[in-house]
Each structure stands twice: as C-alpha cells, then as structure tokens.
C-alpha cells in the first residue's frame, strides 16, 4: 500500500502481516506509517536517505506527525530528543514491560549484568551500531557460543521494543547471524538403561539417595531437571504431578507405579520440597547433581548429558508406538513441532514395516 491520505482512524485500521510494511501519506509523501508484525504502528519520516521514527501512532496524531515531518525536511535534522542510554532503557521501560517467569527473569538479568550492560550500557540507543554488536558477539562467541546466541537474542528483543516505542528506527542486531549449533540428541540404548538402573540400585542400597532418586525420576517421567529438583509436596496429587512452574507453564505429569513409589517415599518427610538441600532444608537440593558425573563415568556413558534422559524417555515412547501428539503432551512441549526430532527414533519400526509390506506385495505379484 502507498499514496493514501492518512488519518488517525485509517492508521489504526492497518492490519499487521508476517513482514513489516509501510504506507505513505498522500498529503506529505515523506510521511508514512510503519506496521510491524506485532501490531505496533509508528509514524516515520523519510529524510536524508533514511527513515526516521517519529513515534507511535497512539502517542502522536497524524497532524502532529505531518508538522514534525515538514519541519525535518526544512531543517534536515533528526528529531531533537534526548534518547536514553541502553542501561536506562533496558533497566527501565523494557524491564518493566516484560512479563516472564521468575526463573526467566533471573537468567535474563544475569545476561544483562554480565554482558549487555558492560558492552552497550553507556551508549545512547541510536549510537548502538551493527559493527559494535558484531565485535562484542564475536568476542563472546569465542568462549561461549551458546551463551552468545542467547545474549544476542535478548539484545534483539530489547531493541525491537525500542522500535515499538518509537525510540529508534531500525534494529542493528537484526542482521547479526547467531552461531550455528549442532543438534544434540543422544538416546540411551536398552543396554545403557539397564546399566544405569543397576548403578542406581547399588547406590540406593541401604536407603534412598536423594540424587539417585532424582536421576531415576528424570528417566521415568521425561521431566526437565528443574521440574524434579524443585518439586514441592503441594504439586503431588496421587498418581500425577501438577507442576506450577514448568518451562511452558503449569502442566500435569502422569506417574508410572515405579515413579509413584519414589514420590511416596519422599512424601514422608515434612518438608516443602521433596528433595531438600542437606544444608538448608527449606530450599531444594542443588541443581548440580554431581552423582550423575560419577555414574556415567562408571558405566561408560560419559557423552550422555542429564537432559538426554528426557530424550531417552521420548524415544522409548515413540518406539512403543505412542503417537507424536501424545508424546508432545507427555513432555510438556508447547508445540508438536518440537517433538518431531524424536520421529526418527522409530526408524527401525518403519524399516520393519516396509519389509513386511514389500513381502506382501511381492507375494501378490507372484499370484498373477
């Protein structure tokens, strides 16, 4: 769309699409409305070969936007505004506007404090350049490529919000490519599961071991580590767990008899957490399960991460013929697409089925 006479009502009626687009004003051709996929709409002014953001349409009328745009054409300068530094912006309006789980806020604040604020905190929003972001990202990637990707994603989110607020016109982090990461999906074989079970039995002889029980529950339920480590008594409901704060929000985990046995044994202690810290019982045990590193070394599976127990649970579901939508529900995935990585776990079953079908068709052909 282009060349329409913009009004406040017409600007509000512009629908977002998958990609951002602009609509130019017929009365003042250098004035336009930029519509973002999020639904945010901002006035823009084309000047000096670039588009300057004037502000959101709900904060500025079309007449004010026209006057400001004409002034800029005459003066040839950007709007005279005092833009905040990245530190002021990130710790202020952006931090206050985002609604996240406490664990997400904690990890985000950690990245802000350790990476983004030292690198960009003193810079005004419009002074953050793509080159500065690339230099920072390359230096961080040398030691922690995964952490650099996460920090880059946060930087993009914050600067996109600055665009929505009409503070800057483009995102300098938008074209910085993240590090390519190998897809890590390791499944335990039946023999490895048996060896793991035997090792956990030996450790638990003479009484339950907290870390051994956690490791066994991770394999029996497919839960994420924090969902078991931070499990509370109030979340146990008979043969199910009603998790209040999983990665994708509240969800229900159904327990097998073996998992219920572990849970019931832990319920006898009058503590809020089923797996309390030995030093501070009112808090959960440490997430760093040192026993896991000893076990995997003893049974020869040192390439297996603790999170791979969740992958192994999912692969066993698929190989048992459980439909992928059901596996997705069991794992607490927000989208079924996340479960597709386990589809190849049933390749042997597909191969066997193909052989059976092929043999049957061959037999029919011989009858002709």
From TrEMBL:
Keywords: DNA integration, DNA recombination, DNA-binding. Residues 183-355 form the Tyr recombinase domain. PROSITE patterns: CB, TYR_RECOMBINASE. Gene3D superfamilies: 1.10.150.130, Integrase, DNA-binding domain (3.30.160.390), Intergrase catalytic core (1.10.443.10). Residues 60-163 form the Core-binding (CB) domain. GO terms for biological process: DNA integration; DNA recombination. It comes from the Bacteria. One of its GO terms (molecular function) is DNA binding. Pfam families: Phage_int_SAM_3 (PF14659), Phage_integrase (PF00589). InterPro entries: CB, DNA_brk_join_enz, Integrase-like_cat_sf, Integrase_catalytic, Integrase_DNA-bd_sf, Integrase_recombinase_N, Integrase_SAM-like_N, Phage_Integrase. SUPFAM superfamilies: DNA breaking-rejoining enzymes (SSF56349). The keyword Signal does not apply. PANTHER family: PROPHAGE INTEGRASE, PROPHAGE INTEGRASE INTS-RELATED. Belongs to the 'phage' integrase family. This is Integrase. It comes from Candidatus Rhodobacter oscarellae.
């Amino acid at each position: 769309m282009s060349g329409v006479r913009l009004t406040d009502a017409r600007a509000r009626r512009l629908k977002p699409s998958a990609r951002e687009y602009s609509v130019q004003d017929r009365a003042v051709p250098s004035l336009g409305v930029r519509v973002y996929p999020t639904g945010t709409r901002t006035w823009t002014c084309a000047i000096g070969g670039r588009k300057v953001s004037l502000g959101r349409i709900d904060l500025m009328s079309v007449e004010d936007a026209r006057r400001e745009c004409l002034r800029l054409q005459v003066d040839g300068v950007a709007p005279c505004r005092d833009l905040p530094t990245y530190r002021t912006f990130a710790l202020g309006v952006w931090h206050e506007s985002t609604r996240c789980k406490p664990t997400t806020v904690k990890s985000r604040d950690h990245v802000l404090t350790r990476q983004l604020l030292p690198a960009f905190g003193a810079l005004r929003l419009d002074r953050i350049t793509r080159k500065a972001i690339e230099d920072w990202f390359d230096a961080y990637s040398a030691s922690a490529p995964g952490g650099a990707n996460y920090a880059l994603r946060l930087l993009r989110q914050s600067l996109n919000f600055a665009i929505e607020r009409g503070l800057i016109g483009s995102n300098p982090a938008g074209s910085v490519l993240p590090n390519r990461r190998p897809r890590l999906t390791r499944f335990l074989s039946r023999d490895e599961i048996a060896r793991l079970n035997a090792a956990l039995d030996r450790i638990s002889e003479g009484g339950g071991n907290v870390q051994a029980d956690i490791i066994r529950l991770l394999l029996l339920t497919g839960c994420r580590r924090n969902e078991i480590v931070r499990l509370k008594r109030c979340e146990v409901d008979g043969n199910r767990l009603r998790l209040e704060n999983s990665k994708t929000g509240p969800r229900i985990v159904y327990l097998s008899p073996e998992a219920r046995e572990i849970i019931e044994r832990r319920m006898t202690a009058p503590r809020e957490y089923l797996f309390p810290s030995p030093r501070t019982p009112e808090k959960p045990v440490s997430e760093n399960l040192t026993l896991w590193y000893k076990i995997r070394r003893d049974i020869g599976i040192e390439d297996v991460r603790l999170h791979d127990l969740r992958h192994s649970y999912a692969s066993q579901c698929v190989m048992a013929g459980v439909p992928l939508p059901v596996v997705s529900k069991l794992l607490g995935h927000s989208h079924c697409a996340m479960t597709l990585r386990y589809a190849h776990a049933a390749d042997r079953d597909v191969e066997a089925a193909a052989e059976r079908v092929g043999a049957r068709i061959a037999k029919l052909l011989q009858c002709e």
